[in-house]
Amino acid sequence: MDDPRLVIVTGMSGAGRSVTANVLEDNDFFVVDNLPLRLIPNVVDEVGLLEGGRRKVAIAVDTRGEITLADLRAATDDLMERGIRSTILFLDANDRTLARRFEETRRVHPVRPGDLAEKIAIERRSLEEIRGAADIIIDTTDLNVHELRERVQAAFDYMGPRRMRVDVVSFGFKKGLPRVADLLFDVRFLPNPHWLPALRPQTGLDQEVRDYVLGQADAGTFIDRAWEMLEFLVPRYFAEGKAYLTIAVGCTGGQHRSVAIAEEIGARLDGLDVDAAVRHRDLPEPE
Questions:
Q1: Does some domain include residue 285?
Q2: Of 23, 52, 152, 186, which is the most exposed, with the fewest CB atoms less than 10 Å away?
Q3: 98, 131, 155 — which closes off a domain?
Q4: Are residues 32 and 113 in the same domain?
Q5: Other C-beta atoms within 10 Å of 286: how many?
Q6: Cα dist. 48→30, 195, 220, 243 in Å?
Q7: Overall number of domains in the chain
Q8: Phi and psi at residue 139, to the nearest 5°
């Protein structure tokens, strides 16, 4: 039987915690919402997490519980001593998106007092350390409900026989850095297909562009050296309990070089014992 697991769901108010809790519940998690951290042992005992009862439990906590990094560390350390591996999932979104969601739903923000912008800023500061300690960060800024559901399901496919989830994300620097990235590679040193009229309208998913990018001598050297580092790092991250790793690959516009390199890295990850997926942030959606 797989080891008992517990997921602690937290993050910014309005970032999708309720949707995430529903997704986990639909996937056979026993979910408890807005539970003080000190009561986690009670839930563990009540559901029989160590006695062959429920094997997947999720607990959602937020700023109303006045969580601190110290309290969170104490809770996860206590769980580990009891033989329960925990995963901290942090949900985030940019301030503009959070404000829009509260205005659209007319919900009251849990932080008081202050106007909405001040409340969001206060909450972000209070959760900054916890965000840094999270095992998984999902940025919901550009996600609809269905996309968030898919992202949560993908993040916890490993619950069962343990496997690390590795996402490779291509992006364009001119559109900003990804909000979530554990490792970041800049491939703007490679010749840019954008300046070749025949390749400009294509993307790194097209064979002509892939052949051009990967045909550069420096591209092969870069991929080999990056792969050596990943072969070293990924198993060690996993051994330390990290369940979800995001590798970002960037070029100028996120259309050509980063896409081709991300695809190549993703293909090589199939050689490791991980669940790998490749996503291209700045490519247009297929029609």
A1: no
A2: 52
A3: 155
A4: yes
A5: 5
A6: 11, 62, 52, 23
A7: 2
A8: -90, 115
DSSP 2: P
Say if residues 104 and 14 touch (Cβ distance below 8 Å). no
One-letter amino acid at 22 equals: N
Residue 189: which of 246, 249, 247, 232 has the closest Cα? 249
Who contacts 241 (Cβ-Cβ below 8 Å, separation ≥6)?
A: 85, 135
Strand order in the sheet with 183-186: 183-186, 244-251, 164-172, 274-280
Cβ-contact 37, 71 below 8 angstroms: yes
Residue ranges making up the domain that contains 182: 164-280
pTM confidence score: 0.64
Rounded CA gap, 167 and 180, in Å? 11
- What is the spatial distance between Cα 49 and Cα 85, in angstroms, rounded to a whole number? 11
Q: Are strands 164-172 and 244-251 parallel, antiparallel or unpaired?
A: parallel
Residue reference for tokens 């915690």: 17
Q: Which long-range contacts (CB under 8 A, 24 or more apart) does 111-116 make?
A: 111/13, 111/63
pLDDT tens, residue order, the chain (287 aa): 355 578 999 999 999 988 998 888 887 788 888 888 888 888 878 776 666 656 688 888 876 656 778 888 888 888 888 777 788 899 999 999 999 999 888 888 888 777 899 999 988 988 888 888 888 899 999 888 888 888 888 777 655 545 788 999 999 999 999 888 999 999 999 999 999 999 999 999 999 999 999 999 999 999 999 999 999 999 888 877 677 789 999 999 999 999 999 999 999 998 888 889 999 999 986 55
